[in-house]
Design a protein that fits this description.
This protein is α/β, with parallel strands linked by helices. It has eight helices and seven strands, in the order βαβαβαβαβαβαααβ. It has helices spanning 19-30, 42-52, 68-80, 103-126, 150-170, 188-195, 200-209, 219-230, and strands at 9-13, 33-39, 56-60, 85-88, 132-137, 175-182, 241-244. The protein has a seven-stranded parallel beta sheet, sandwiched between helices. The protein starts with 8 loop residues before the first strand and ends in a 7-residue tail after the last strand.
């Protein structure tokens, strides 16, 4: 396979064909990265790469399939010659009364939210020959309890714990590992969730009332934090979790 001449650095972003992941891809492209966009929806992936142009490569992928993370990183390295940043963003939401959640559903949520992220971290770090940065997208719910969100919270709490341990273990390889914990963010998933309520406007008022800054996060807010942690400006930051939640967890 022919190796392309990469941009200054290469960033692999999982789950980057919509929502927060797409905003991250756009931002890192503006920062001068070549971004590797991933997702299961080929049509959306092709649309994103058409928008981003020569600075983007799309790898269609279901991270829950065996060996998927290895195939992703091997493909990225083969096409672009290097991997400098991995952003673990791919995730699925889950709500449900804790005592009623079937075991297979718990396993499914952990498979994509936690186990796939572990594999992407491992496979990406193995290929960071000159060091790099790994950024795990966790959640405000990794540190705040909300009814019906226990399983989702547990997957993100595990990813937060992985972040601190991996930061210490990978420091000798000059690989920084940090997390970003978004608050409620206005994405297509949020809009779909809101539309399920009898009174969406009142639900949104209730949600924003719990946020000290009085508004939802925008995907671009999360992308800005990723941009910082991926940059040389954050060269001495590792093992940190940055809340981007409008003050929700500071209450």
């Amino acid at each position: 396979m022919t190796v392309q001449a990469p941009a200054a650095r290469v960033a692999v972003i999982t789950g980057s064909t919509s929502g927060i992941g797409l905003a991250i891809a756009r931002r890192l492209c503006r920062d001068g990265f070549h971004v590797v966009v991933t997702g299961r929806n080929v049509k959306r992936g092709e649309t994103v790469t058409a928008e981003l142009g020569a600075a983007a490569t799309f790898v269609p992928l279901d991270l829950t399939t065996p060996g998927a993370a290895a195939r992703l990183m091997v493909t990225a390295e083969a096409r672009l010659g290097r991997i400098d940043v991995v952003v673990n963003n791919a995730a699925i939401d889950h709500t449900g009364d804790l005592l009623d959640v079937p075991a297979h559903v718990t396993q499914q949520v952990f498979q994509i939210n936690t186990l796939a992220a572990v594999a992407a971290l491992q496979e990406g770090a193995r290929r960071m020959q000159q060091g790099g940065a790994i950024i795990n997208i966790t959640s405000r719910l990794a540190s705040a309890g909300v009814p019906t969100m226990a399983i989702y919270s547990a997957t993100k709490g595990a990813l937060a714990a992985l972040t601190t341990a991996a930061a210490v273990e990978l420091a000798p390889r000059n690989i920084r590992v940090n997390a970003i914990a978004p608050g409620m963010t206005q994405t297509p998933l949020y809009d779909a969730w809101l539309a399920q309520h009898d009174d969406p406007a009142e639900t949104e008022r209730s949600v924003t009332a719990a946020i000290p800054l009085g508004r939802l996060a925008r995907p671009e807010d999360i992308a800005a934090a990723v941009s910082f942690l991926a940059s040389d400006e954050a060269a001495y930051i590792t093992g940190a979790s940055l809340p981007v939640d409008g003050g929700y967890t500071a209450r």
